[in-house]
Amino acid sequence: MLLKTMILTSLFVLLVIFISIFTGRVVAFRVKNQFWQRIIRGWLPVILIVCILIGSFYYYVYYGFGHQADIYRRADTAEKIVAITFDDGPSRDYTPLILDILKEYNVPAAFFLVGSQVEKYPEIALRIVEEGHEVGNHTFDHVHVPTTPATELAAQIMRTNMEILMATGEYPHYIRPPRGFYDARFRRLAELMGQEIVLWTLSSQDWRPGMTPDRIASRVLSLVKPGQIILFHDSGALLKNEGASRLATVQALPIIIHGLLEKGFEIVSLEELLKQGVPEKDLIWDDEVTY
Ligand SMILES: [Zn+2]
After folding, report:
1. Centroid of ligand 1 to alpha carbon of 199 (angstroms)
2. How far is the C-alpha of 157 from the C-alpha of 149, rounded, in Å?
3. Domain finish residue from 63, 82, 102
């Protein structure tokens, strides 16, 4: 599987390079000015390669490629239900504020916890469970799954399960790889641990610099569709496990809950959402999928 993925990725990159160089030549050929011809021939392929590869990366993270039978991204339902999820916590500063809002509106959520954060703030992890929310595993150190050695990856997952179990008394039945990057080993480990891999359909993109509460809210409310799993962050930072401000997320949350209710949506737990709809798992061509 890994070899097949590497070969397909290499072929894709080669194709992108070929198309970009070809496009650069064709466009340069139409330009009369020699100076601009040289610039276009040299730089247009580079710009195209970077844009296409970054675009593909984002597409892969948010939607994946092809049918992935053991991964939940949404419920396939016309019923106006959504589930909201928070990654990277618990955070000392923001998770309690988020829990206060969820309590005020009586809304369930799922928290994908980072093991080292649970170790730091076990009482906040406990509060999440005590207030009726679900918890999932998000690895111990928020590792990049595909480049983590197998034994380390197993340790990352097991340690986090233990940490969550010890802090909350609850075994996490869900797991989400950081940034949505998984591989065949991750899938096997999740199966072995009795955990469902849950990604997301709609990212609030609250981690992006410059996102205001209004921008986060209008993004979610304009893109939301029935059966979606919505992604937020209650902790984390671009390179570290915590440190970034999640105040915009906290402030956007009441606007989003209000907006969803106004649009006739019901916010349900992940368990409820995955039960009520038909996850990718049960699609008819399930039998044909091999790994
Ligand atoms: Zn994360």
Report:
1. 11
2. 12
3. 63
